[in-house]
Design a protein that fits this description.
The protein has 306 residues and is α/β, with parallel strands linked by helices. It contains five helices and 15 strands. The strands form three sheets. Strands 1, 2, 3, 6, 7, 8, 9 and 13 form an eight-stranded antiparallel β-sheet that branches. Bound molecules: flavin-adenine dinucleotide.
């Protein structure tokens, strides 16, 4: 990674993972402009962004990007520029330019139209990326570089699991995995009503798990609707309570039936650090599952005060 880029989120730990592709991920810089914003659930928002020459990002081998947002939405930004190899360059040290970086997943890409969709968890802990997504309006500037990160390996059976930050990657995989694949998908969200409409795959049904199963949402997202149609205060109602309960996701993974031949299967788990640790421990206990058929990636870490 270029030492001059604004890095305030550590690289995902992929020590146990072998890249799905032999090619090294690139780090190409693309300025972006917000085209539109859409509410997916009380805790998720999709931004459709426009940029030029997005074709290098059109790969399932590297699902993620480094996403650049303002630190303070009320101040002007000095955005990175691209060096002669297309990599991001900052002209000032991190923060001084009012730009910071977080990792996100490309949910959908339309190279011909120059559009990219990114789905953001709008959590209630004052993060620059979450704040940007919540406030974004057409014409706002941001940027990305990449593509980066790894993906699943070819298999006939998949176990895909994680919290809502992993949901965009799981949805993109469901859009693209061959129809003959079997397995299961397990997603943790904060409470009933926070589910997101997922692509339907014939062999990979989605099961939902709740950190706060006793709290029903007052603004269930039955259908996706545009921000313009929805009162803004309603959208973030989902963060107005303590959201640190434990779901039954690890136990559910422990009871999943694994294939007899691990080489025909692949397990992908991502999300909050501690959740990931518990999921891997529960799912893999006494199974002798080969580590090269597993990719577990911590996407964020809950702090003591959240
Ligand atoms: C490879 C990769 C791909 C990712 N893809 C996505 C994606 O597609 N969509 C997505 O929403 N996230 C995704 N994430 C997670 C995202 O990068 C983090 O949640 C990030 O910390 C959000 O940045 P922020 O500026 O909003 O908050 P930060 O400034 O990083 O954190 C501020 C506070 O918010 C808390 N916090 C951070 N994230 C969450 C959360 N999800 N829920 C509750 N509290 C939180 C932190 O613990 C901290 O206390 C991905 C992460 C990785 C590594």
């Amino acid at each position: 990674m270029n030492s001059q880029t604004a890095v305030s989120q550590s690289e995902p730990s992929q020590a146990d993972a072998t890249p799905a592709t032999a090619e090294a991920p690139q780090n190409l810089y693309r300025p972006l402009t917000v085209l539109r914003s859409e509410v997916l659930s009380p805790e998720m928002r999709r931004l459709t962004l426009q940029g030029e020459d997005l074709s290098p990002f059109d790969t399932l081998d590297n699902l993620h990007v480094r996403f650049y947002v303002p630190v303070d939405l009320s101040l002007p930004c000095e955005w990175p520029t691209a060096d002669e190899e297309g990599r991001p360059q900052l002209t000032k040290t991190q923060g001084a330019n009012n730009v910071t970086m977080r990792y996100y997943t490309i949910r959908r890409l339309d190279v011909a139209r120059g559009e990219v969709d990114i789905d953001f968890v709008t959590h209630g802990h004052a993060g620059p990326a979450s704040n940007f997504a919540r406030a974004a309006k057409p014409g706002d500037r941001c940027a990305m570089s990449g593509p980066c990160g790894f993906s699943v390996k070819p298999a006939d059976w998949y176990l895909l699991a994680g919290d809502e930050t992993a949901l965009p990657a799981i949805a993109r995989l469901l859009d693209n995995l061959p129809a003959h694949c079997q397995g299961s998908v397990h997603i943790e969200v904060s409470r009933p009503g926070c589910e997101v409409v997922m692509p339907s795959h014939p062999g990979l049904p989605v099961q939902w798990h709740y950190r706060n199963s006793n709290l029903a949402s007052s603004n269930r997202a039955a259908d996706n609707h545009s921000v313009a149609d929805s009162p803004s205060a309603d959208h973030d109602a989902g963060v107005a309570y303590e959201d640190s309960g434990l779901s039954d996701l690890p136990q559910a993974l422990a009871s999943v039936r694994f294939p007899e031949q691990p080489d025909s299967g692949f397990i992908w788990v991502a999300g909050e650090y501690e959740l990931l640790r518990r999921c891997q421990a529960a799912a893999l206990a006494d199974r002798h599952w080969p580590k090269e058929r597993l990719l577990g990636v911590p996407y964020w870490r809950r702090k003591a005060d959240n």
